[in-house]
Structure formats: structure tokens, C-alpha cells
Amino acid sequence: MLPKNNVTEFILLGLTQDPVRKKIVFVIFLLFYLGTLLGNLLIIVTIKTSQALGSPMYFFLFYLSLTDTCLSTSIAPRMIVDALVKNTTISFSECIIQVFSSHYFGSLEIFILILMAIDRYVAICKPLHYMTIMSRRVCGALVAVAWVGSCVHSLAQIFLALSLPFCGPNVIDHFFCDLQPLLKLACTDTYVVNLLLVSNSGAICTVSFVMVMFSYVIILHSLRNHSAEGRRKALSTCISHIIVVILFFGPCIFIYTRPATTFSMDKMIAVFYTLGTPLLNPLIYTLRNAEVKNAMRKLWSKTLISDDKR
């Protein structure tokens, strides 16, 4: 019979316990989070207000930026506040909510990246049928499926977390609640649960990464038959997508596809895919995309003109 769960709260150790370093963490990650909000919200507003960015690619980019914003928001504010206070406790229910939200938006980002790869495959390999295959209704349905799939995945994580008995200790050596740190605190054998975690989160990360990279191999192979200008434009877009895929999937695969062992670098790697990638994505997509930069310039010009009229 499993021990009863008598833990009502957990203590998050964060990235460091040193007071000076905690202040440095506060400043750095506050700037990271503000940069993430500014960059992604700028892309969201630009895509929503620009008629030139009405293609399916930007439809998915809109949802990628929205997902990045939500993923970062589910983790960063708590981490930033904990860097300033002594009492870094989190209630059991808040911890479970954070497990759900981080996995929900993390898996949603995976599905959106898959949809973006599908969009590029259809656009480059089947250009004559592109608008028919990737119609607005189809794109909306694909995003809806991604939302539902993410919900199913996250509910599975919650089920695994709630199945674990916690009777002490309650100190989590991490800066946010995740299933792997919780496994170390459970008062039972977690071998089966860890296998389920690897087969769930690990399989989603690995299989999705292989699918996306395989699709881009096919896309790059098909570019041989395009004109020099078409090849240049397609390469610019695809390279941006590939960079984002590697930056996000690499750390996720490292974290979720191995047995329940921890390494000293785990927390920094988790910082990279939960906070670093959402910050870098807007920079990657704007610096390498002329259409987005032009739309942002037009939006900025309209804003200045409206301010002058006032």
C-alpha cells in the first residue's frame, strides 16, 4: 500500500542560494523575460495588423510567438520573484498547475513547429496546391488539434504527478516544478513512472524532432529544381526554422529521454529551453525575414504618424 501524501508545499532551491548571485539572477532573468514579452508581443501585433503577413506561415508564427509568451510566463515570474525573497515555497496545488502549464505550452510549441515544417513542405514541394491544401480552415483545424494534443499530454503528466505519494522531504532542487525533480521526492519506487515519463515526454520530443528534420531534408533536396532567387528565399526561411527546432528540441531531448538521473547542468539546460528559446525566437524570425521586418517598419511608421496627429 502506498504511503499517504502529507506534503502540502515544496521548497524551490532555484538556480543558486548565494544572496549576491540571486540578485544577479533576478536582474538577468527579469531582462530576459521583458525581452521575451516585448519581442513576441511585437510579432503578434505585427502579424495581426499587417495584411502582407496573411500567409499560413505567419499564421503559425503568430501561434508560436503566443506559445513562447505563455511558456515563459508559466515559469519566469515565479523564478524572478523567488530570487528576491527568502521564503521560496510553492504549494502542492500551485506546483501541479506549473507542471501542467509548462508541459502544455512546451508540447504546444513542439506541435506548432511540426505544423510550420508541414507548411514549408507544402509551400516548396507542392506550390501549385499550396493555398488549397493550407487553407485558413485547414490551418485553424491543425492548430486546434495541436491544442487538444497538448492538453492530453499535460493531463498525462498531471496523472503521473498525482499518483506519487509525498511524505517528505519537500525540497525541490530546481527553479520550477517539473515531474523529474518530483520523482526524487516520492516515497515509493518511481521506476515505472519514470519509464512512462520517458515514453511520453521523451518520445514526443525525439519522434517530433526526427519528423521535423526529415521533412526539412526533403525540402532542401527539392530546392535543387528551383530558381536561384526562389532557392535563396526558401533557404532563408527554412534555415530560420531549423535553428529554432535545434535550439528547442536539443535541450528537451537531453532532459526527457534519459533515466531518472540528474546532472549539474540540468538546471541551466532547462533555463535554455524554457526562457532562452522564447527570447531568441523573435530575434531569429525577424533578423532573417525581410517581410516581417518591413511589416514592423510600417507598423512603427503608422504609430509615429498617429502620435504626431495627436
UniProtKB/TrEMBL annotation:
Q: Does the keyword Transmembrane helix apply?
A: yes
User: Which Pfam families is this protein grouped with?
Assistant: 7tm_4 (PF13853)
Its subcellular locations are: Cell membrane; Membrane
**Predominant place of localization:** membrane
Q: How does it sit in the membrane?
A: Multi-pass membrane protein
Keyword annotations for this protein, in alphabetical order, are: Cell membrane, G-protein coupled receptor, Membrane, Olfaction, Receptor, Sensory transduction, Transducer, Transmembrane, Transmembrane helix
Tell me the InterPro entries matching this sequence: GPCR_Rhodpsn (IPR000276), GPCR_Rhodpsn_7TM (IPR017452), Olfact_rcpt (IPR000725), Olfactory_Receptors (IPR050427)
Residues in domain G-protein coupled receptors family 1 profile?
39-285
Q: Which residues cross the membrane?
A: 24-45, 57-76, 96-118, 138-160, 201-223, 235-256, 268-287
Does the entry feature the keyword Transmembrane, yes or no? yes
Q: What does this protein do?
A: Putative odorant or sperm cell receptor.
Q: Which family does it belong to?
A: Belongs to the G-protein coupled receptor 1 family.
- Protein's name according to its UniProt entry: Olfactory receptor
- Source species, please? Ceratotherium simum simum
Tell me the gene name. Answer: LOC101403898
